[in-house]
Amino acid sequence: MLKDITLGQYFPGDTPVHRLDPRTKLILVVVYIIALFNAKGWASYAVMIAVTLLCMWISKISLKNIFKGLKPMMFIIALTALLNIFYTQGTPIREGWIITWEGIDRAVKMMLRITLLITGTFLLTYTTSPMALTDGLEKLFSPLKKLKVPVHEMTLMMSMALRFIPTLIEETDKIMSAQKARGADFETGSLIERAKALLPILVPLFVSAFRRADELAIAMESRCYHGGEGRTHMKQLQFTGLDIAAFLLGAVFLAGIFIMKRFGL
Amino acid sequence: MAVISVENLTHTYSIGTPFERTAIQELSVTIRQGESICILGHTGSGKSTFVQHLNALLQPSSGRVLIDGEDINKDKISRRDVKRRVGLVFQYPEYQLFEETVAEDIAFGPKNMKLPKEEIEERVLEAAGFTGVDKALFTRSPLELSGGQKRRIAIAGVIAMRPEVLILDEPTAGLDPAGSRQIMDNIRSYREKSGATVMIVSHNMVDAARYCKRIIVFNHGMICMDGTPEEIFSRSEELTGIGLDVPKAAELAMALRRRGIELEGPVFTHEQLLRAVRRAAEVPVC
Predict the structure, then answer these.
(1) pLDDT of amino acid A1
(2) A124 and A27 in one domain?
(3) Is residue A245 part of a domain?
(4) So what's the ipTM on this one?
């Protein structure tokens, strides 16, 4: 049951989107988000949806996978929509009702905005391996090293965290089974009882996480790891023609959204 | 008393996903009260999956597991009750210790059974006795003890539930020879004194031969051999074929017998071999 969690899952593939430099993809996602928050009219939203679907089509990510990732967010999306429907001033759809036409308009746009936001970021994590992602981040933020920001350490922490998520999930599963075998009950009882029942899982989990961290540190040290200074990468990131094309398209897209905003579309 | 019968048990992990994998297939076996059984098999042969079915931690994809004729997966209550009758000690059980003191950790199982306080205390003492956990350790934190001590405390935690069937998944993994022998002796004394059925999952042939009367060999999710240690080890070529080894002493004894040297009794361990060879040497060879 715990294994069903999708957290930044990567779907390997060989599409143009997969081949893009991770830095390009990171920048384009930022461009996408800026565009999304500047889309005001329905026409702009139509463009956003079209661009998103196009990217999905190129990267061969199916709608099904996107929906699977959206599922945990459904509650937040629904809640936002509901609040917007009921709390927007304007002309009521019927005499005496508190639901307004403006409210419905806003609710649908909000839902679209959140859905598109999540879809856009999913496209990034579905098509970029965690390693490439952290490499890209490190490169992008490397100018901050001059300001004494520990960029390398931060990205290393990130990639390690990503690396250990499946391991920890597996470990949790194992500890849960072991405690169940000793008669622990995680399914019945009041909320407080159930929270208390988590203790036999959390304590061993923390103990083993710290032990693992310790072992990893020793293993890294014994392989002469000493921080980012002078370290090179096995895979050097290199911008290609594909990236330049993607940047150009991204710029056109962003400019288009801004122009549409100017004309109130 | 508990008789476990497994009927056509099949288990498939992650059904309906690309990661679908059948771990055990159409498996049937009967286990009688008081038996000492060793389950052998290489990594990934389905041993661990199999034992997790015996206390309803895993539910069969198809087939049934019966204890005294009753399906253990009948409903939620029987799934819970079977965990008290069939105690399962996982691999590296020391990683499940969490309480502040050793005594409390051993008491976790009995506490979950909602037993009266005096009974819990009695069971903790008894279980600690079986596994050789010194009473002086009771107030210490289990996390600061040595690996072997932790292992014994974790096993005591399951024994304290007084299971009719005790299953241990690789109880000696990662311990030194002295430590593993001690634990195996503790388990044997528990079986002798309580009359419980004991099942050990292992790939240590010597342990299997020394402590168990029946060996079940798993291969590719199926039982490929089931019999006494003598029967199993006489099929050494088949064992090697599925990636298992016959104990060196047993192999040597078999070779000697083939040469016509009479060796008395079962010979699986170095000590037995030594004794048998000495005895054979006393008898003048014509």
Answers:
(1) 43
(2) yes
(3) yes
(4) 0.83
Q: Are A243 and A123 in a shared domain?
A: yes
- Going by C-beta distance under 8 Å and a sequence separation of 6 or more, which residues neighbour residue A76? A114
Which single residue is written with the structure tokens 């168990």? B212
The answer to whether B57 contacts A180, with C-beta atoms less than 8 Å apart, is: yes
The span from the CA of A217 to the CA of B10, in Å, is 42
- Residue A119 CB burial class (10 angstroms; 0-12, 13-18, ≥19): buried
Average pLDDT value over all residues in chain B: 87
Give me the domain span that covers residue A18: 2-128+236-262
Interface test with A, best of B58, B98, B99 (most A CBs within 10 A): B98
**CA gap A63, A57 in Å, rounded:** 9
Three-class DSSP category at B35: coil
**Residue A166 sits in the same domain as residue A241:** no
Residue reference for tokens 């040595």: B146
pLDDT confidence bin for B139, thresholds 50/70/90: very high
Q: Are residues A71 and A171 in the same domain?
A: no
Q: Could you give the percent of chain A with pLDDT greater than 70?
A: 97
Same domain, A95 and A201: no
Domain shared by A199 and A100, yes or no: no
Which of B58, B77, B96, B170 has the highest number of chain A CBs within 10 A, making it the mutation to test binding with A? B96
Q: How many domains does chain B have?
A: 1
Q: What is the pTM of this model?
A: 0.75
pLDDT at B160 over 90: yes
Spell B172-209 as b/e; 16+ CB within 10 A means b: beebeeebbbbbbebbeebbeebebbbbbbbbbbbbbb
Which domain, by its residues, includes B259?
247-286
Could you give the number of structural domains in chain A? 2
Please answer yes or no on whether A183 and B109 come within 8 Å at the CB atom: yes
How far does the CA of residue A81 sit from the closest CA of chain B (Å)? 33
Give domain status of residue B2, yes or no.
Answer: no
